[in-house]
Specification:
One of its GO terms (molecular function) is oxidoreductase activity, acting on the CH-CH group of donors, NAD or NADP as acceptor. The strands form four sheets. The chain has an eight-stranded parallel beta sheet with strand order 13-12-11-10-5-4-3-14. The chain has a single domain (5-341), classed as TIM Barrel, CATH 3.20.20.70. The chain is of the alpha/beta class. Helix 1 runs parallel beside helix 2 (78-93). The protein has helices at 42-48, 78-93, 149-168, 183-188, 203-221, 244-259, 274-283, 302-305, 316-320, 324-329, and strands at residues 11-13, 16-18, 22-24, 54-60, 97-102, 121-122, 131-134, 137-140, 145-146, 173-178, 226-230, 265-269, 287-291, 312-314. The structure holds flavin mononucleotide. Flavin mononucleotide is lined by residues 25-28, 58-59, 101, 103, 177, 179-180, 229, 269, 291, 293-295, 314-317, 342.
Length: 359
């Protein structure tokens, strides 16, 4: 088994001292209350995983338009702030640090799932052609409405407000979700962004919205509390970012511009283009987090060992093993993930995965 030695080295992330190089990757769990407040068990779920040090939450909508899935939490209303404050307190009590992921889904939505039941918004009026789970079963994502230039400014304002709300709730920072086929990623992808104004058409124009969101959030809460996640070439949500060279051109420019903002971290959902990942490392001035879907247990330290990453966030291993840090440290066996309970309500498959001590 490959050594995990490098994972156990401490790391300073902005103003936060981390004891090791693991973190909790953001994972949607669809257990929020109907008003968008985190569910009753959210504080327990996240505090159970606080030994991961950096706890990045599930995608959390900055506005009603930003919601796509059933029962996901928000961070824009006063009651959301009060709900997240309980989560932040619980995580802090266990020695962890909380970053709330700000996720605006754009066209990956359905009016059945949002509080205002409106048509989803996007860079262009192009359907993602995806199946969306609603209370009445799966339905097709509708054709979204194209945001006007003025509305783009409003959405940037929503991100600003959501970031301020996260800090008001006691979070240590936010992660801007510019990955996985959602609104910010839609702006980057030529097949979802066919705008003819300053937000579409060229590499620079397609990156503009992401950069403006990042600038606004960093200005609002501080760059040392602002992280961002990207997923170059990830075809989720019907996105097509073109061939390898097109993807490299888009993301080298984007990351080069974001690098100037001194954000606290760049979180890369890495699909395998090591040349691109290395180029990020060369220009990025702070921490780089790298996830790779389905990374095996003995591959967790690989990107850190290769000098490409500082932190290796864990998704499903941490979902199924609240004490994943202890288990990896002691070379203990892991619980299996139960895929059937990923997105269902309640404690089962959420807060009832046993620790080594329970077992
Ligand atoms: C149940 C589930 C929900 C997820 N939700 C999100 C999300 O809200 N935001 C996000 O950026 N990634 C999300 N992801 C992706 C994870 O953050 C992570 O990148 C992915 O699971 C790969 O890591 P792993 O192989 O360690 O699980 C989700 C993954 C899973 C399994």
């Amino acid at each position: 088994m490959t050594s995990l030695d490098s994972v156990w080295q401490p790391f300073t992330l902005g103003g936060i001292e981390l004891a090791h190089r693991l973190a909790l990757a953001p994972m949607t769990r669809n257990r929020a209350n109907p008003d968008g407040t985190p569910g009753e068990l959210a504080a327990e779920y996240y505090s159970q995983r606080a030994s991961l040090g950096l706890v990045i939450t599930e995608g959390t909508q900055p506005s009603a338009d930003g919601q796509g899935y059933l029962n996901t939490p928000g961070i824009y209303a006063p009651e959301h702030v009060a709900g997240w404050a309980k989560v932040a307190d619980a995580v802090h009590q266990q020695g962890g640090h909380l970053f709330i992921q700000l996720m605006h889904v754009g066209r990956i939505s359905h009016p059945d799932n949002t509080p205002h039941h409106r048509q989803p918004v996007a860079p262009s009026a192009i359907s993602a052609e995806q199946e969306m789970f609603t209370a009445e079963g799966p339905k097709k994502t509708p054709v979204p409405r194209e945001l006007s230039a003025a509305e783009i400014q409003d959405v940037i304002g929503e991100f600003r407000h959501a970031a301020a709300s996260a800090i008001a709730a006691g979070a240590d920072g936010v992660e801007i979700h510019a990955a996985n086929g959602y609104l910010l990623h839609q702006f980057l992808a030529p097949n979802a962004n066919q705008r003819s104004d300053e937000y579409g058409g060229s590499v620079e124009n397609r990156a503009r919205f992401v950069i403006e969101v990042a600038k606004a959030v960093a200005e609002e809460i501080g760059a040392d509390r602002t992280g961002i996640r990207i997923s170059p070439a990830f075809p989720l949500g019907g996105l097509d970012e073109g061939d390898t060279e097109a993807v490299r051109a888009q993301y080298r420019y984007l990351v080069g511009e974001l690098a100037k903002l001194n954000l606290v971290y760049l979180h890369v959902h890495h699909l395998g283009d090591y040349e691109l990942l290395s180029s990020f490392r060369e220009v990025w001035p702070t921490a780089v987090l790298v996830v790779r879907y389905g990374r095996e247990r003995d591959g967790i330290a690989a990107d850190i060992d290769a000098g490409l990453a500082d932190i290796a966030p864990l998704g499903r291993f941490a979902l199924a093993n609240p004490d994943i840090v202890e288990r990896l440290r002691t070379d203990a066996p892991l619980n299996d993930l139960d895929p059937a309970t990923l997105y269902t309500g309640g404690a089962h498959g959420y807060t009832d995965y046993p620790t080594l001590t329970d077992a």
